[in-house]
Amino acid sequence: MATIFSKIAAGEIPCYKVAESENFFAFLDINPVAPGHTLVIPKKEIDYIFDIDSDEYAEYWKFAKRVAAALRQAMPCVRIGVAVMGLEVPHAHIHLIPINKESDMNFFKEKLSLPADEMQRIAAAIAAKFE
């Protein structure tokens, strides 16, 4: 059975797409810990990030780096925080989060609920900076 992330990448479930390549997909987290919180996934369904083939793993991080660069331009911040946990959805995913202080990466605080128009604006701003 396909994961929710596979369905998002396949266009079966709507999302706020930020970037896409042949093998990878990036979209806004619908329950962000900060505005601009982006998830980067391989299109191939793999549960555990360290099970990804070494060459594909390197390409995955290169894609995530490009997404992070676009995110940093679109959402001014000190850094883009990175987290890989992968427990909630059994599909490898990298969290990219604009941060100004370490506490901005707190996954245990109440998640944000941003209006659809703001999510669309953020996604479009990041996508416009993606190279």
Measured by DSSP, the beta-strand proportion falls in 15-25%
Dominant shape: globular
End-to-end Cα distance, whole Å, is 33 Å
> Stretches where pLDDT falls below 50 for ≥5 residues?
none
Which strand order spans the largest sheet, edge to edge or round the barrel?
Answer: 1-2-3-5-4
Q: Main β-sheet, in a few words? A: 5 strands, antiparallel
The residue-averaged pLDDT reads: 95
Query: What is the helix fraction of residues, given as a range?
Result: 25-40%
How many helices? 3
Oligomer: single chain
Q: What's the helix-strand series?
A: HEEEHEEH
Instruction: Count the beta strands.
Output: 5
Taking Cα atoms only, what radius of gyration do you get, to the nearest Å?
14 Å
Structural class: alpha+beta
Structure keywords:
single chain, alpha+beta, 131 residues, 5 strands, five-stranded antiparallel sheet, 19% strand, globular
